Amino acid sequence: MTHSTSLVLMADVLETLRQKSLLVDEQLKQLLPPAEGQAIPEVRELYSSAWDYNLRGGKRLRPALCLLSCEAFGGNPQDALNTAAALELLQNFLLIHDDIEDASDMRRGKPCLNKLHGDAFAINSGDFVHAWMWRCLLANKPVLGATKTFAVMREFVQQLETTAEGQAMEIAWVRDGKWDVSEEDYFELVKRKTANYTITRPLRLGAIIAGATKRQADSLNAAGEKLGIAFQIQDDILNLAPPGEAYGKETAGDLYEGKRTLILSRALSKMKDAERGEALASLSKPRAQKTPEEMARVLELVKKTGALDYCRKKARQLASQAREQLSKKLFGLPDSQAKSDIFALVDFIVEREY
Amino acid sequence: MTHSTSLVLMADVLETLRQKSLLVDEQLKQLLPPAEGQAIPEVRELYSSAWDYNLRGGKRLRPALCLLSCEAFGGNPQDALNTAAALELLQNFLLIHDDIEDASDMRRGKPCLNKLHGDAFAINSGDFVHAWMWRCLLANKPVLGATKTFAVMREFVQQLETTAEGQAMEIAWVRDGKWDVSEEDYFELVKRKTANYTITRPLRLGAIIAGATKRQADSLNAAGEKLGIAFQIQDDILNLAPPGEAYGKETAGDLYEGKRTLILSRALSKMKDAERGEALASLSKPRAQKTPEEMARVLELVKKTGALDYCRKKARQLASQAREQLSKKLFGLPDSQAKSDIFALVDFIVEREY
């Protein structure tokens, strides 16, 4: 692919995401109560903060994949709108809680809810947005009928459990000071924490809503998992080596948070003993004691090992395998704009710069 | 009621709660995956901690009310078991998150999850138990059919929203240092935060599962609300004036947490200016700076105002009004053990010592 084709493709993908975003925002406004109607000021504050957060933007990759998958499988994407909105709320509630758990600072270009309003407010807001997610899923009944509505709900329950499992792994690693994270460990974590709800689940949900069989839905799992891991690796790369202003989180925030990434796993395994000792001493400090100078030094040590390039290659490799698997699985479906949009998104996942 | 009758009744109520508890524990074990099956140690830890918490005990008042209401309305209490289990999980996940938000120490006679494993682990555990709640609700489908299953789910979504609203009020009051909480403010808070999911919702859910009309279910709201407020006032009294060992939370924990209660609202309004100033200065300190001596002094000032007696009277008054309303609403139902058990529970709510 030449550079200019790639730029054109990227613009197309961003336009696709933007259009799906508008649909999702519209659907959220249809389904959920506005803040204005709330008479008690403290309750109104809860509602308006939730609305503010839900409309902050973000890529809206997950709802877009769900809508496109539904269409590619021959369904009416309108039928997937409630579920797409629910996927966005799932993501938002997980991010709100994740940012407390990691003591993060920035999200989508603004301070995290825990920074704006404190941990207590943020925990409660996450629970509130989670409740709204179920409100969206209940709205599926008149559109999809009972059987599909329950099938979609079962996917969400499994998703919630899987994500909590991944989160538990990450939290335990940080708590226990575990730094000898192997590539396999990392994959087990990311499969649960990210891959599933970012790629696999949205694709499955779209297919289920379109009326695909369980077998067809299951056939998407392997590709979804690979692509989801590629997505997370790219996320980790962007965190340590952000290309510009568009990235909405703090730079090298992962080092401050002590997040276990494939980059760090690779870098630590490649460092000489003295450098590894130095890096681990800095990384193991509590967040508040980490200085920008120290983190810059860790980043320098990491870069020296070539871990960033290794991970870039790994992400591309996984994405290309996923693309091939997905081509086979979607081969039987008629050609459509939705189908080609899905493949454009697959490329976007490892080419994106935000 | 003589003292000895009251003791006999109390023993009966405790036996009713114990029996329902066993049913709920059994149902949880039927519906949810055991920790043993989990291969990854960090995931197994999440599961076993969730199981440990769910089986800690507690009164199990909410599931009991749901089962009894179903039976009183002519339903088969077996049909309400999944929902009763879900109510217990709702309560557990709310307590896990609430204890983080309030930085509480003890729950059901053991340290809170945030004290045992840290805030991050506890937030995630709450989300995990919340997911399990939905797993129980989805299991209703083959038992209740689609229509009732959705009706029950709608009740849970409303419940989650209402509780988050109440929580938001309390968090904002603490954050903003608001101590001039009127009786009306307090009732608005408690209606949302406690009354609804403790009394009203379990009664409604049992009725809905038994096949009651929406009108019948709605007719329970007013009594449920009064009784729920009485329950919370009694909880607040037990916190400041615990009768013995059975109480599973820290004594006067509400003063350390700076919780706004009817007792404090009343006491502050009755104190002389100098004493109010002294009490507020102590209460407004961050939790870590509050000493046992200081809190004992605040408690002494509170007791001097007669606020505890005022609140005891208020709780009994509300419970007795609720009892009367409930008698009218349940009047048309055939006499049954379940019906009389409900009224015994109504009395228990303000007579209980734990």
Tell me what you see in this structure.
- 2 copies of one chain form a homodimer.
- With 354 residues, chain A is mainly α.
- Helices cover 75% and strands 1% of the residues of chain A.
- Chain A is built from 16 helices and 2 strands.
- Chain A has helices at 3-31, 41-54, 61-72, 81-101, 113-117, 119-138, 141-175, 183-210, 214-218, 221-240, 253-257, 262-270, 273-283, 292-304, 307-330, 337-351, and strands spanning 106-107, 110-111.
- Chain A has a two-stranded antiparallel sheet with strand order 1-2.
- In chain A, strand 1 and strand 2 form a beta hairpin.
- In chain A, 53% of the residues are buried.
- The model of chain A has no long low-confidence stretch (mean pLDDT 93).
- Chains A and B meet through helix 2, helix 4, helix 6 and helix 7 of A and helix 2, helix 4, helix 6 and helix 7 of B.
Q: Give the mean pLDDT of chain A.
A: 93
What is Rg of chain A?
20 Å
Poorly predicted runs of 5 or more residues of chain A: none
Residues in helix, % of chain A = over 70%
Q: Any idea what the shape of chain A is?
A: globular
